[in-house]
Amino acid sequence: SQTIHQWPATLVQPVGSPLSLECTVEGTSNPNLYWYRQAAGRGLQLLFYSVGIGQISSEVPQNLSASRPQDRQFILSSKKLLLSDSGFYLCAWELVTEAFFGQGTRLTVV
Amino acid sequence: AQSVSQHNHHVILSEAASLELGCNYSYGGTVNLFWYVQYPGQHLQLLLKYFSGDPLVKGIKGFEAEFIKSKFSFNLRKPSVQWSDTAEYFCAVNSRGGADGLTFGKGTHLIIQP
Q: Which pLDDT score is estimated for A107?
């Protein structure tokens, strides 16, 4: 069966520090992968998506970047975190007909 | 650009009350419609979805939603809620045939009081 792993579940990082969130998928090949963020008081917002290795599309200009080094691995990164990067980050594997989500990462930048 | 609007951000009901959560979307093309739910401490999961055909769709746990094309709406309903329905509910759309992800509403935090 399809499974999506995302870690860590919670993270507290100081302003200016780097970030790396990892997401891996099991049980499928060549999945479409997505990173979403939910900031306080706002809905889930699409940040990046990838339809294949090395292919990244960015929806919102920001302090973050994404990479897809392997077929079933999707990484969200930042070189220097800002306070405004705090939020809940979700990785998703999506078909047109349904999406499967990771557990999410609660990031607090202090 | 697509957008999804959920009318109620916080809803508090008593057990056995009827539920209706509003969702309207804006999009120029043909869309698929979804309701996702996140129970406390759990992953976001699919509640129900509409692609085509009968505009009244039934999902898990007694939920249903009706697609009204003329109103661009996809409201979620349940005749009698239970305490275990306490959760965050998200309406979402994606474009048919596209890979550009889901557009979510802001979510509705539903609290059911025993």
A: 95
- Whether A1 shows a pLDDT value over 70: the answer reads no
Q: Integer distance in angstroms from the first to the last C-alpha of chain B?
A: 41
Contact A89, A37 (CB under 8 A): yes
Task: Tokens 């699409």: give the residue.
Answer: A46
The three-state secondary structure class of B79 is: coil
Task: For residue B82, give how far its alpha carbon lies from the nearest alpha carbon of chain A (Å).
Answer: 24
**C-alpha span between A102 and B79 (Å, rounded):** 30
Q: Report CA dihedral (A61, A66, A68, A73) to the nearest 10 degrees.
A: -130
User: Do residues A35 and A89 lie in contact, with contact meaning Cβ atoms separated by under 8 Å?
Assistant: yes
Which residues of chain A make contact with B46, given a CB cutoff of 8 A? 98-99
d(CA B89, CA A104): 16
**Chain B contacts of A45, Cβ < 8 Å?**
104
On whether the CB atoms of residues A19 and A77 are closer than 8 A, the answer is yes
Spatial CA neighbour of B78 closest among B7, B15, B10:
B15
Contacts of A99 in chain B (CB under 8 A): 34, 36, 46, 102
Q: Which residues pair with A52 in a beta bridge?
A: A55
- Residue B95 tokens read as 């474009």
pLDDT single digits (tens) B31-57: 899 999 999 888 889 999 999 999 999
